[in-house]
UniProtKB/TrEMBL annotation:
Compositional bias of kind Basic and acidic residues: 8-17
Residue ranges, annotated region (Disordered): 1-41, 63-82
Protein's recorded name: Uncharacterized protein
An example molecular function term from Gene Ontology annotations: calcium ion binding
Organism, scientific name: Paractinoplanes abujensis
Amino acid sequence: MTEPQETVETRGNERVDLIAQDSSGDGKPDVWVSDTDGDGKPDLFQFDTDGDGKVDITMVDLDQDGNPDAIVDGDGGHPPTV
């Protein structure tokens, strides 16, 4: 049985992926940088660390100061759109 993942608060309810990058060269995105409030600045950062195509770590920067306000395992309730 899979444990439920923690849901993290973001700045808004929309998601625009500013970056969906394949850093491992396997043809699948493994880094996502997203804007959730429409200001064009990233506040949601997600990483696939094991190459399975699923988010393993989510970081949220609510005040957009470059320091994460929350770091959780999994997608934090915000699965990537790409």
